[in-house]
Amino acid sequence: MKNIIVLGAGMVGSAMATDLSIKHRVTLTDLNMERLNHVKSKCPELTVLQLDVCDQAKLHSTIQDFDLVVCAVPGFLGFETLRHTIEAGKNVVDISFFPENALDLNKLAKEKGVTAIVDCGVAPGMDNIILGYYNERLKLTDFECLVGGLPKIKKWPFCYKAPFSPIDVIEEYTRPARYVENGNIIVREPLTDSEFIEFEKVGTLEAFNSDGLRSILFTMPHIKNMKEKTLRYPGHVEYVRVLKESGFFDKKKISVNGIEISPLDVTSKILFNEWKLGEHEEELTIMRVTLSGHNPDGAFEKVVYNLYDEYDRISQTSSMARTTGYTATAVANMFLEGLFTEKGVFPPELIGKHEACFDYILNYLKERNIHYIMTTTNDF
């Protein structure tokens, strides 16, 4: 049994802390004490502690006595929190999905003798792990990830609910999307190249460009074609593009009756209620990862992994919290059991390349009723 501290008591952070408490002593921290008390009422085994991760000295002293730090703070706090954690010499598993490049901290992590495993969610996360595994077994030419979290009940106009802050969702809609085509990195506006794709159990969904490749742009430059697209119910993209093109996502302040205000702040405030996922509201996560390449015999091979997961009524845990959080807790337990011992910063594809790590994570998720269904075709 190890001592673990989880930074961030949001929907995913709380799910991770609860899951980790099955085998370990877990302390859950957040700035919001009301939120902490609510989580503890559902999982009395947890120790809760109010903590401002922006207070570097306090963060440094608080995490010293723990065997592992699990970071689940909002994206805009993620990079600095990770840096401070590494500077404190603590091993860390991170799912904060910040926009900065985590590999910039690799030198620091090695100097401190720290293992930092980042982007440990569903996507980025499991798609990277799958990619890393097959990159060792096939000469890959193509990689595609289609992924989305959706409410089971559609509500007009957006037919969408977010298990995290709307400001992080809007970031996905405004950050330029990068993908790889014929070996070249292409930068496009997000919400572009939309297409309708059929999925079992869900039906038709709309896929559009988003900036989800992240680390694999740099760790897998030999793969000629790579793309990630976000999935939504049909019609969502058009409504969001109208808001974006009309200036509702602009950060630059405008004057309204003599008051300086950011359109993005107003939009986020309004959409918080419109997009907020209720604590017991049922939703689903769907993902399709497709890889193509040649096996050692030279034959073409196509591998597809499909995920369909729903809100867990028994544990009252959202699907996005399960599929994201339990990937991270799988990695945390894998690390604590000594299956991965390298020092530095490691995105998930550099973990999945190891067969023992890959198998451990998939089996851990299966035990929690999260199933990735694989199919493969060969051309001999």
Can you lay out the helices and strands and say which pair or pack?
Elements: E1 3-7, H1 11-20, E2 25-30, H2 33-42, E3 47-50, H3 56-63, E4 68-71, H4 75-87, E5 92-94, H5 106-112, E6 115-117, H6 126-135, E7 139-151, H7 166-174, E8 177-181, E9 184-188, E10 195-199, E11 203-209, H8 216-219, E12 225-232, H9 236-245, E13 254-256, E14 259-261, H10 263-275, E15 283-294, E16 300-310, H11 319-336, E17 344-346, H12 349-352, H13 355-367, E18 372-379
Parallel strand pairs: 1-2, 1-4, 2-3, 4-5, 5-6, 6-17, 7-12
Antiparallel strand pairs: 7-15, 8-9, 10-11, 11-12, 13-14, 15-16, 16-18
> In terms of per-residue confidence, which ranges show pLDDT below 50 for 5 or more consecutive residues?
none
Ends distance: 49 Å
Number of domains: 2
- Total helices: the number is 13
CATH class of the largest domain: Alpha Beta
Main β-sheet, in a few words? Answer: 7 strands, parallel
Concise overview:
With 380 residues, the protein is of the alpha/beta class.
Could you name the key traits of this structure?
2 domains; oxidoreductase activity; Sacchrp_dh-like_C; alpha/beta; single chain; Rossmann fold; Dihydrodipicolinate Reductase, domain 2; oxidoreductase; 380 residues; 7-stranded mixed beta sheet; 28% strand; AASS; 34% helix
